[in-house]
Amino acid sequence: MKDLNNLIQDLAPKKFTVLGKVWTGFLILVIIAALVCYYFQLRDGLIITEMRDYALWGVYISNFVFFVAISLVGSLMTAILRLSGANWSTPLTRISEIIAVAAIIMAGLTIIIDMGRPDRILYLFTHGRLQSPIIWDVVVISTYLVISLLLLYYPLLPDFAILKRYFSKNGTASKWYGKLSLNWSGTEQQNKLYNKSIRILSIMIIPVAFGIHTVTAWLFATTYRPGWDSTNFGPYFIAGAFVAGAGAVITIMFFLRKSHGLENYITDAHFDKMGKLLVLLCLLYLYFNVNEYLVPAYKMTVEEGVHLNELFLGQYAALFYLVIVGGLIVPIIVLLSPKGRKPFPVFIMGMIVVLGAWWKRYLIVTPTLLHPFLPIQGVPESWHHYYPSTMEWIITFGTLAGALLIITILVRYVPIIPIHETAEEMGIAETEKN
Amino acid sequence: MEEKNTNPRRKFLDTGLKAGLLTAIGAAAAKAAMNIDKAYSAEEETIELMTPGGTLVEVPVSQVEEIPELKDGDYKVREGFPNRKFVMVVDLARCKNAKKCITACNKTHFITGENAWLKVYKMQESEKSAPYWQPTMCMHCDKPPCVKVCPVDATFKRQDGLVLIDNERCIGCRFCMAACPYSTRVFNWEEPKQGEMTEIYLQMEEMEHMGHEMHSPDYAGLPSLKGTVDKCDFCPHMIDQEELPHCVTACPNGVFFFGDAYEDTVTNGDETFRLSKLLEEKAGYRLLENLGTEPSVYYLPPSDRLVNFEEGLENYTEYESVEKPETPENTEEL
User: Fold this and answer.
1) By its UniProt entry, which Pfam families does this protein fall under (chain B) (predicted)?
2) Does the reported pTM lie above 0.90?
3) Is B178 among the domain residues?
4) Which of A268, A297, A329, B192 could disulfide-link to B224, CB 3.0 to 4.6 Å?
C-alpha cells in the first residue's frame, strides 16, 4: 500500500518548473514565428521557399518523411517489444506512444504546408483516386493516427482512475481525470476487455506501421527517377524509421529522467538495453544502405552514375559521409562497448542518430530531384541547386517545435510511466483496488 | 457557316479540313478543281480525294460521307475530340535553335516567368557523337506517369491522347512533376506575372463566347493559377479552330509536324507526310522509350542536318528559357 502511494507520488504529473515554463514558452515562440512565415507563404506562394521546378520537393517533404519515420517508434516499442514479451520496455512505452502521436500529427500538417493549394485539401477526399500513392498515404496515416491515439489512450484508463483519486483535493483536475478514465474501476470484466483491446491494437498497429512507411517509400519509388527507382526502398525506409524512432525515445527518455527525477524507473539498465537495441537497428539499416548504394554504384548506369557521383564525391559528399559515418557507424562502434551504453553516451548517440536520420531524409529527397533524366537547361542558375530559405527553415523548425510541444503538454498531464502497469509488474496493484 | 453548307463541295472541304486532312488537301483540291471538268462529264458532280496510299482518285459526291465535325455540340473538355490521336514529330535534323517555338509558346500562353513549357536542349549523347538541338515539350504519353500519381484527378488523359491539367482542381502537391521523367511540368511558385492582363481577359471573353468555361484545361495558361502545375497542352484551342499548335506554325525551319495518328498524317504547315512512312524512313524514335511511358512525340534523328550545330549557338543563352524585358524598349513591346 505504501509502495503504491510512493509510486503514484513519483509518477503523477507535476506542474511545470520554471525551466519547463521557459521551454514551453520557447516552443510557442518558434511556432508563432513559423505561423507568421506560413502566412507569408500563403500570401505570396511557395516562392518564399528555395524550391523551384527541379528541386520541386525540399525540406518540407524530407521533414515529413522524418516525422513518419519517428512515429514508427510507437509500434516498435509498444507493439513489437510487448508482443515479444520484453517487459523491460514497459516504462518506455508511454514515451514512445506520445512521440508517435506527436510525430504523426505533425507529419500530416507538414504535408499540408508543402501543398501549393492548401485551400483544396478537401479534394483529397472528394476527388481522391485510389491509384495515387498519395491517397494510400492519406488512408494509412489517418488509420495509424487513430490506432496510435487508441494505443496511447487505452493504457491510460487505469492511470486516469488512479489520478482521479490522487488529485481528489484538486477539484478540476480530479473531475477531468475522472471523465477521461471512462469510469474505470478495475473490475475483472474491465481488465479483460482492457488487456484484450491492447493486445488487438498491438497486433493491428504493426502492419499499419509497416504500411505507413512503405507507402511513404513508394511515394518516391513509384516515380521514374534515378536514386528512387529502387525495390529496396520499402524495407530501407522501415529500417531507417526504427533507427530514428529508437534514437528519439532515447533522447527524450534521458531528458524526462533528468527533469522528472525518474532514475528509479528509467534505470541505467534501460539505457543499456536501448543501446543494444539501437546497435541492432543501426546494423540493420546499414545493411539496407549497402544494398541501396552498392548495387547501382557497381553498375554505374548513366543516370544513377550522375546521382551517385554527386553523393559520393560531389556537392552532397560531406553530408552523405556525415550521415553514414556519424549517424550510423559511430553509434554502432560506441554502443557496442558496455561503457558506451551508460546513460549519457547512449543519449549522445541517440541524439546524433536522430540528427543523422533527419539529414538522411534530406539526402533522399533533394539530390535525386536535381538529377533528372534530361539535363537541367534553360533555367536560372539558382534552380540548379537547392538549400532551404530562412522562412523554410523557420516553418520547418515550427513543425519540430510543434511535435515537441505536443510531447511537452502530454508529459505535463499524463503519467510518463504507466502507473498501473508498473504497479502490476511490481505486484502491488491488486491490493490497492478493492 | 450556313451559306457554306449549301455547297456540298465547300462543305466537304470544310469538314475535310476540320478532320485534319490539313492544308495539303487544300492544295490538292485546288489542283483538282482545274482538272475536274476535263475528266468527267456534267452527269454528276465529282470530287477528288487522296487515298491512304497517297494517290488521287475522283469519286462522285454522293459517295462521299461526311466526316463528323472535330468538335460537336457535346464536346467534353475531359474527354476530348472523338476519334483522334494527336501526335507530334520533331525533326532534329532541321532544328537550328531559332527558338521561335519558345517565343510563340510563351507569348500565346502568357508565360513571362522562368518556366517555359517548351525547351530546346543542347544535347550530346557521348563525347564523340555530334551535338544537336532537341526541342522538348510535354510528351502526352499514352501511359502518363503524371496521371497515375495525381491524387485528385487534376491531370488527366483524354481519348484524343492529350494529357491536360485542370488548374481548378490541382492541389499543388507536385507529385506529377516528380513522376514526369521528361521534366516538362512547371509550377506557379508565385502569382503568375502574365504580362498584359487585359489581353488575357479579352481572350477569355472570346472563349466564353465560344462556350468555354473560364480556366478551361484545354486553354491552359489563360490565366495561370498560383500554386498549381502548368505544362504544354498541344494547344487544343488551336486544334479546335482547325489550326496547328503555335510552336509548329512559328518554327521557321519546319521542325515540328503535328497530326493525327489515326489519319496517319502529320504536317508542319508546308509539307505533309504519312506518319508511318516518315517514321519508318527516317528511323523515328521516342525519348526514354525504355521507361514504357509511350510518348506521342516522335523524334527524327539529327542526321543530314540542314546546318551545323554551331549555327544555333548564336541564339543560345544559357539560363533563359523565357526572354525577359530588360530594356525600356522591350517593355514597351510587351
Assistant:
1) Fer4_11
2) no
3) yes
4) B192
